[in-house]
Specification:
It is built from 11 helices and 19 strands. It is an alpha/beta fold and 452 residues long. The longest helix is centred in the middle third of the chain and has 27 residues. It is globular, with a radius of gyration of 29 Å. It starts with 8 loop residues before the first helix and ends in an 18-residue tail after the last strand.
Length: 452
């Protein structure tokens, strides 16, 4: 055992202050699943075998640490144990093995309307629900105006909440949860309810709460939210931690896994659709081919089932390929150096080898250090792209080229509507931008100065 002297005390105090707010260590949780349970005394005495069961592990050996002011996203497929983990953090249930330590007051949005009484008014439920979180009546009175204002339920506040829509439920529940001055806020998919404006308002408030030092844990299938809002992510798969760490890296790994799983299901479906007659016809035509053609077909087949290397500069299934990207100025002339402020077209040419229902084309501008300056795709812009010919191009038009003078690179991609990469170029080509402006940085912002 190491000795401790006076000089070590400040260091130990600093380490203690940096201790995790949420600490989960080797947590396990299992449930009994009965094959055919007997409920009556007669069943239990006469047919004792009906009480057979198996232990089904929902979580097994999961660990994570979350510091003060951090946000962690918990992701994974349905049934992987996400909600169970959040319920154990809320202390609704407890682990069978391992430990969970949480410092400070906990506020949670685990289930829509949990803690609400349907026959009470919204105002009465504010008092009831906030008291569950540990607030006194005086503290609730001090926060009442903020809760009502944020929920936007003023005219409905004194109506029974059984008359509320699911969106109104969520507004009231969220408004209470963010006004209890919690040290830890736990959210389970509840923000999927409600209109777009209120969701934006919620995440704006969550960022403010996070900035004040509140630790946040979110369970969500919205990977974009997890990637942009959270510092860390925990990917659960069959009750185990498949990945844990930086949110962007974990989400990217999960996306790749889901894409590969989707691709495998597509291939299995295509194989199942091939009738015995179709298989026999394909076998006959294969026998009639020359040896060189057979070898080519085999090579193509081998290539088609090759796993996608997501770390490569270019990857995808190849059902649609990007054949060329050209930059054009207003008169249609091809250019290689872009001019800041000038109208510019970017033409992404494609060739279709195997048709899909719809497509998603995307592009982005990056610095040589791989910093994304701007990225967008047709799906984000609300466009449905259906290609009716074997080859063509999509055009990205800018009235004013926004990049300042410098060296950049262009990224482009085409996915199917489920996010599966068909042809993805991380770094398609480098290019330069010229500008006469004296501003510094990468992006030109149209502006004017006024002096009062």
């Amino acid at each position: 055992m190491s000795k401790m002297n006076e000089g070590n005390k400040p260091e130990l105090a600093a380490q203690s202050s940096n201790a995790p707010v949420i600490q989960v260590c080797n947590v396990e949780k299992k449930f009994r699943v009965y094959y055919d349970k007997g409920y009556s005394l007669k069943d239990k005495l006469v047919q004792w075998g009906r009480n057979r069961y198996q232990n089904r592990y929902v979580l097994r050996g999961v660990s994570m640490d979350v510091q003060r002011g951090e946000a962690i996203g918990i992701i994974g497929e349905n049934g992987c144990g996400k909600s169970t983990m959040l319920k154990m953090l809320t202390r609704i249930m407890y682990p069978d093995a391992g430990s969970i330590q949480i410092k400070g007051r906990i506020s949670s949005l685990i289930e829509l309307g949990a803690g609400f009484h349907p026959d009470l008014s919204g105002r009465e439920n504010i008092y009831t629900n906030a008291s569950i979180f540990g607030l006194t009546r005086k503290e609730i009175n001090e926060r009442m105006e903020d809760i009502v204002e944020f929920s936007e339920l003023g005219e409905y506040l004194d109506n029974p909440i059984r008359t509320y829509s699911s969106g109104m439920y969520m507004r009231l529940a969220f408004s209470i949860a963010i006004n209890v001055d919690a040290d830890v806020l736990l959210i389970d998919e509840i923000l999927a309810v409600g209109d777009a404006n209120f969701q934006t308002k919620c995440f704006s408030r969550l960022r403010d709460i996070k900035a004040t030092g509140t630790t946040i844990a979110i369970v969500s299938h919205d990977l974009g939210t997890i990637q942009t809002f959270c510092d860390k992510a925990l990917w659960l798969s069959d009750g185990k931690a498949a990945a844990y760490g930086n949110a962007k890296s974990v989400v990217e790994s999960y996306r790749q896994y889901m894409n590969e799983k989707y691709i495998a299901s597509l291939r299995a479906h295509e194989e199942a659709e091939r009738t015995p007659a179709a298989k026999a016809k394909a076998a006959t035509s294969e026998e009639e081919q020359s040896p060189s053609t057979q070898n080519a077909s085999a090579s193509e087949m081998e290539s088609s089932i090759t796993e996608i290397d997501y770390n490569a500069n270019r990857f995808g299934l190849g059902d649609v390929v990007i054949t060329r990207v050209t930059f054009r100025q207003a008169d249609g002339q091809i250019i290689h150096t872009l001019v800041e402020g000038e109208p510019t077209d970017i033409d992404i040419s494609y060739a279709v080898h195997k048709s899909r229902y719809a497509y998603n084309f995307g592009m982005g501008f990056y610095t040589p250090e791989n910093v994304c300056l701007y990225g967008v795709n047709t799906q984000l812009d609300g466009m449905e792209v259906k290609l009716t010919q074997d080859a063509g191009f999509v055009r990205f038009h800018m009235d004013h080229m926004p990049l300042l003078a410098g060296h950049y690179y262009f990224q482009c991609a085409v996915n199917d509507i489920n996010g599966v990469p068909l042809d993805y170029y991380r770094r398609y080509m480098d290019f330069d931008v010229s500008s006469s402006r004296a501003a510094i940085g990468c992006i030109q912002v149209d502006h004017q100065w006024e002096i009062f």
